[in-house]
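User: Okay, second chain of the day. Same drill as before: sequence in, structure tokens out.
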Amino acid sequence: SVRQYIKPIMKELPDKRVDASIAWYRRFLVWVEHRWRDRSPGTHKLFRTFQTGVGGLVTDFQDFVTVWTRVSGGGAPYSHLGYREISLLRLVPKELARATPALCISALPGTVLFLPVLFYFPRLFLTEHFWTPEQRLEFSSAQLRRRQSEYRHLIDDLAFLQPQLDSAALRTLLHNIRTGKPNSPDLLAGSVEAFEHDCLQFDYLSYKHAIHLSRASGISAFRLYREYRLWRLAKLLYEEDRAVERANFVFADPTKPSDPAAERLLRQQFCLARGYQSWNRPDSEADKFVRQWCRLSAGLRDTNNERRLAFMLHLPSLMASVEFEDSQKSVDKNNERQK
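Assistant: Same drill. Structure tokens below.
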């Protein structure tokens, strides 16, 4: 009968209408975007920048969840992770907290109305996913200056604890810093053992010392969970150093095609987290800093690793007074000593 032919057609009709509606809506959005680009190129560029930033932040968050699941479940130790994967554990939580307003606004209609406010305060509401290279340099430099302003307080805190630490290497190191004399990497490496003392464990730091250390490290100085935040940052920095060593000091992401710009950005982030501004500097200088830093942090490789983690967060303030040699010269000296 006719009914048996009409019934299948009626079942397929709603699906076809939905597909046609979606196709029409997509064409409409493309038409609107083209009209927008032609009539207001400035706001259109702002919107595209915002879209790109949201996409990059969401991608990093997805990778962060994957890495965090592997680590928290105990299935993958840090030795199986690369530098970028470990750095996501350090950076993404802070970036998500800052970009939460932007992510909420992106899901609402009329997003373009709020973009001028967000981009007028990019350092407050947006992360580096949304920044231009000029903004990244400006904001990173300002952040580093604020951190470096706490270094002298950390030196004073260590000098106050010096009688309890009883370390000749640290005593000489602090004396040279206060008198303006340069220090050697060997002297800095010899002071690692002093950080095993109880008074330099995160749970036993004085109130002022903990605040100075938090601000110098670029994290919140709020009292709640402050000791855990310090420990977590020191642990992640140490594991990042070991990951860079395993990769032979190459910052390429093995899961993605080779990208020199992305590798340079990862190196810059590595240096910035350790108190060194590598922007507008030759790659050779940044590479020298990375190698020397990793050589010093390698002094924590023993059974007292956890008790020496405070050294990782004090190292930027101590390292500012060190004159480094070329890596090849250092290797030659070590070979001569062994002979």
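Residues 326-339 have pLDDT under 50 and may be disordered.

User: Thanks, on to the next one.
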